[in-house]
Amino acid sequence: MMEVTILFLRACLALLAMPIYLLSFLGIWEPFCKKIFFPYFLENLSVIHNRKTKKQKQELFRNLPDFKGPSGELKLLEIGTGCGANFQFYPPGCKVTCSDVNPNFQQGLSRSMSKNQHIHYERFLTAAGEDLHQVPSGSVDAVVCTLVLCSVQSVSKTLKEVQRVLRPGGVFYFLEHVAANPSSWKLFWQQVCHPTWKLVFDGCCLTREIWKDLEEANFSELKLQHISVPLPWTPIKPHIIGYAVK
C-alpha cells in the first residue's frame, strides 16, 4: 500500500513539474539547468546552508592544520567546489586545488575567492569525482567534499579516487545530506520527491545511504556523525558530517 501511495504522489508531483519534464524531453532543461539555474540555485543555497551549519563546519575543519605534509604546507583538493562555500573555513596559506564537473560556477566562485584571499588557489579542474586523473596519486594532504556525493555517478568510485590522491595519513572531510531513518515520514517524502528533485536539481539524489559507502571504503579511521540541518520545507534535513583518515 505504501509503495502505491508513493507512486501516486510521485505522479502528482511530476504533473506539477510537467513544464520541466517537457523541457527535459526536448533537450532544453539540462543545458539550462547546468549553465544558469543550478549555479544560481547553489550559490543561494550555499549562503543559507553555511548559516545553518557554520558551527559544525568550524568544528569539522578545526584540525585541518594538523594534517600539513612534511614540507609544512597544507595541500587541499576540493571535489565539487561549486561557488566556493567552504573557502572561509580553510586555514591561512592553505594551497587549494578546486575541481567540479560543472564549469559554470565562475561568477559565484570569483565572488567567493575575492572574499577569501587568505588561501592560495593553485588550479581549477573540470573533473568528475570518479575521475581525478589530473591529480597525481598521493599528492594532497586533505580532500574536502560537501553536498557533492548526492550527485556523483558512483559514490564508491569517488571514494576510491579520494584514497588514491591522498598521501598516507591524509584526511577526507565530508558533509552530505543523506536518506532519512527507515520507516520515517522524512524518508517517505524523500522517496516521493526523489525523481522530480533529481531532474530539477541536476542529478541530486535524496535517498543515498552514503555512510554505508564510507564504512566500506577501508579508511584507517572514520569519525562520522548523523545530524539534522534545519532547512524547513525541504527533504534534505538529514546529514552526515565527519572525516576519514587514509
UniProtKB/TrEMBL annotation:
Record carries keyword Ubl conjugation: no
Residues that span the membrane, as ranges: 7-29
Ranges for domain Methyltransferase type: 77-174
InterPro entries recorded: Methyltransf_11 (IPR013216), SAM-dependent_MTases_sf (IPR029063), Thiol_S-MT (IPR052356)
GO MF term set: S-adenosylmethionine-dependent methyltransferase activity
Gene3D superfamilies, per the entry: Vaccinia Virus protein VP39
Signal peptide (UniProt feature, chain positions): none
Keyword terms: Membrane, Transmembrane, Transmembrane helix
Identification of the protein by name: Methyltransferase like 7A
